[in-house]
Amino acid sequence: MAVLEYLEQEKTHYRVTEHEPVYTARQLARVEKVQPALVAKTVVVLADGKYHLCVLPADRQIDFWALRKCLAAKKLELASEAQMTSLFGDSEIGAEPPLGAHYNLPVLVDESLTHDRQIVFLAGVHTRSVWMDMDEYLRVVKPRILNFSFESKNPGIDWQELNSMWYDPFAF
Fold it and tell me: In the prediction, which pLDDT does 1 show?
C-alpha cells in the first residue's frame, strides 16, 4: 500500500506538494522553503536485533549513546541499505516516510521535533512531500517521544550537496 493510501485509510488530514527530486532532509527544507527543524527525517536503527524507526528534525543528529540508553540496548547500529529495502518495499531508498505502523515498525520521535505545529516529510518518493499538523501526526503514529538527538555542528552546510561522493556515516 502506498504512503498516501495509508494516510487516507487512517483518515488523516494532510496536504501533498510536488517538487524537484531531493535526497536529503536539508534539501527538502530548502525546496519547501522551511526551517530544517520542521522537516522530519527518518533513520532506522537495529537495537539488540529489533528495528526502530527514529524520527528527528533535519537540523539534528542522533546521539547514539543517548538512544542506546533510552532503549536499554546493548547493541545499536544503523540499518543497512539492504535492510531498508526489505523494510520499505513501497518507498524509494532515502525517501522513507516516518510512518512506522505502515511498516510494522515502532516509532521513536525526538522530543525536539514536537516543538512546532507542523512537519513535512517525504512521501516515499524523492519528488513528493506530505505536510501534517504535529498533533495529527502524533495521533496517527502514536510514537514514543524521547530525547536522543543533538544539534548539527554546521547546520548551514550540506556536505552531500557540496560533493555528491561525500559519505558521512555519522550524519544521521
Answer: 54
Q: Does 168 fall in a domain?
A: no
Q: What kind and span of H or E run contains 62?
A: strand 60-62
Model confidence, pTM: 0.87
CATH code for the domain in which residue 68 is found: 3.90.960.10
Q: 123 is in which domain, residue-wise? A: 3-152
The answer to whether residues 57 and 160 touch, using CB atoms and an 8 Å cutoff, is: no
Res 156: pLDDT:
52
Q: Total structural domains in the chain?
A: 1
Q: Does 38 reside within a domain?
A: yes
Residues 6+ apart with CB under 8 A from 31: 19, 20, 22
Nearest to 39 by CA among 22, 52, 57: 57
Q: Where would I find the H helices in 40-100?
A: 64-71, 81-87
Q: In what order do the strands lie in the sheet with 128-133?
A: 15-18, 128-133, 118-122
Residue with cell string 549513546: 65
For 24-49, the pLDDT digits (tens) are 999 999 999 999 999 999 999 999 99
Q: How far is CA 104 from CA 18, 49, 52, 87, 162, in A?
A: 27, 15, 10, 9, 35
Position 172 confidence tier, pLDDT thresholds 50, 70, 90 = very low
For residue 171, being part of any structural domain is answered with: no
